[in-house]
User: Fold this.
Amino acid sequence: MSAINLADKLSQFSDHWSPKIVGQFNGHDLMVVKVEGEFVWHSHPDTDDLFLVLKGEVDIEMRDSTVTLREGEMFVVPKGVEHRPVAREEAHLLLIEPAGTPNTGDETTAAVKEVL
Assistant:
């Protein structure tokens, strides 16, 4: 057992929108991800979607509103709500979701989650 240094984990890759698993918590994946640009509109019918901004700024667009998150802020998109994260410049996020949850809400289009 040892501490997980999120900055160190984030320094190990450069690709965007590809979550990396850095730990597990009660059946949930703890992931870091670098984001830039627009992600696809999607929803998760059975799970909430948690976003915690470690660096930068991210807009969580929903069909009827937008929540802007800055460093140190988090937001939970309720299950079933269609949303799209957008980062005008590179941002770093911590994501927590049940293990195996596809990042697009659809296993056929989801990024393969690599363990760091």
